[in-house]
Amino acid sequence: MSASLMHADYIRREFAAKTPADRKSALGQFMTPSSVSEFMAALFANKKFDQYRLLDAGAGVGSLSCAFADRCETNSLNIPLDQLEVVAYENDPLLIEHLRCNLSYYRQLRSHVHVSDFLAVTPEVKPQFTHAILNPPYNKMAAKSPERLLLNSIGIDVPNLYAAFVAVALRELVQGGQLVALIPRSFCNGVYYKAFRKIILQQSAIRHLHLFESRTSAFKADRVLQENMILVLEKGGEQKDVIVSSCKDATFSDLKQHTHAFNQIVFDADAESFIHIPTSNDECLIERSPQAIYSLDDLGIKVSTGPVVDFRATEYLRQMPVADCAPLLYPIHLHADKVTWPIENAKKCNAILKNALTEKSMYKNGFYCAVRRFSSKEERRRIIPTLINPSDFAQYDDLAFENHLNVFHAGKVGLPELVARGLVVYLSSSAMDQSFRRFNGHTQVNVTDLRNMRYPSLDILNELGQWSMQQDKFDQVAVDKKMESVL
């Protein structure tokens, strides 16, 4: 490690220890450890250009630029240091002098430090860089924020600063230019990042995906709890196989690496363009199965988020059931093997009054498969399904589902019993958990995710449902064995 990178890492640790958490959060500022900087710099392919210009947007104290310059000094990239120009953007005045100092260690390097917001130059975007290395800020952008409106003016519609930095940096690369970015994994799925995924797939080729599997270990000095990854893109490149690597934390001590066909990363028929990250060469049972090929539309099944938003309906909520009410189900009522309702002295209400306004959000009593929208990171599976059995609510005609639940239904009426039971088995399987984790890196289970997954035929769901009724208890080993037999 060079003296400049060592100094940058020392300053990073000092800032991590002394900077208040609220300031880090306000800036979306989580600086890059030296080990990660070196790993990222090593991901650039050796390519020849007439001139070499590196973009470091959100440069912090310059760790990433220093790691790249170190690679040039050791001739690892075949870029003579006196032929490299670094353009760095940083808008935190507390870091600027450290950034300039660290870049000045390289006497042959030409560097330009802009004390400004990288996105402020967005209207002037033009291809001018051969390389880009980024650890951008993570903050969300309000729909009417100046940054969001500025981006919209050039056709970039993204919800978060990190996506904005990557999208703009990609536009600033020349054809064949390479981008390496350390970003949250959240863009891989969900409706909010669909436009961002389209930008990546239309303008570049994915060369490498690296996943930090631990939420808490990779950047513990800054208490970053998101699942992070490194994305490597080539502007205008031909899409080929993708290298996928993973490790637990920033030591890279357990690094694993495999190569996958692109159609294992982005499925051919996926209109949402979810990005899957398989962390081993083991094929996922669901993804290789010729049986799990149906969409929910194919099966005539719908899935919706529970329509009752409790803080908007407080006047109609009741702690315990009363006359003219319907059961109101929250996640606290649902367990893997049963529903517990009502719950006395619970923090959440158990019922909602029926009237002309609330009945519009109710479902007819019947068989449903309900899935919690949020799971804790300690839980064994991301998807936790529960069977809603009408016999548990025999005296009620209607049911109400709170907004933190997703519900599989048939147009606000229940599903056939065996289909509902079969869905619970299917969604409870280890194969489904493995498939889901390949594109979902957080604890939220969105309706879009559930709609985007593939399911077996109604005949197989019926078979799984029939099998579940014959089991004394819901055993994970038995579930997985049954899934292997039908898929």
Give an overview in words.
With 487 residues, this protein is of the alpha/beta class. Helices cover 28% and strands 20% of the residues. The radius of gyration is 26 Å and the shape is elongated. The protein has 15 helices and 18 strands. It has helices at residues 3-18, 21-27, 34-41, 63-73, 96-104, 146-152, 161-171, 194-203, 285-288, 296-299, 417-428, 430-437, 447-452, 458-469, 476-486, and strands spanning 52-57, 84-89, 110-114, 129-134, 173-184, 204-212, 228-235, 242-247, 256-260, 302-305, 317-318, 325-329, 351-353, 363-364, 368-372, 385-388, 398-401, 405-409. The protein has a nine-stranded mixed β-sheet, sandwiched between helices. α1 packs antiparallel against α5, α7 runs parallel beside α8 (194-203) and α11 (417-428) packs across α14. The model has no long low-confidence stretch (mean pLDDT 90). It folds into two domains: 3-282, 3-Layer(aba) Sandwich (Rossmann fold); 296-486, Adenine-n6-DNA-methyltransferase TaqI, Chain A, domain 2.
Can you tell me the CATH superfamily of the largest domain?
Answer: Vaccinia Virus protein VP39
Helix content: 25-40%
Q: How are the strands ordered across the major sheet?
A: 3-2-1-4-5-7-6-8-9
CATH class group of the largest domain: Alpha Beta
Largest sheet: 9 strands, mixed
Q: What is the alpha-carbon Rg in Å?
A: 26 Å
How does the helix and strand content classify structurally? alpha/beta
Q: Spans with pLDDT under 50 lasting ≥5 residues?
A: none
Helix segment count?
15
CATH topology of the largest domain: Rossmann fold
**Gross morphology:** elongated
Distance between the termini: 51 Å
Arithmetic mean pLDDT:
90
Strand composition percent: 15-25%
Overall CATH architecture of the largest domain: 3-Layer(aba) Sandwich
Count of separate structural domains: 2
Instruction: Report the count of strand segments.
Output: 18
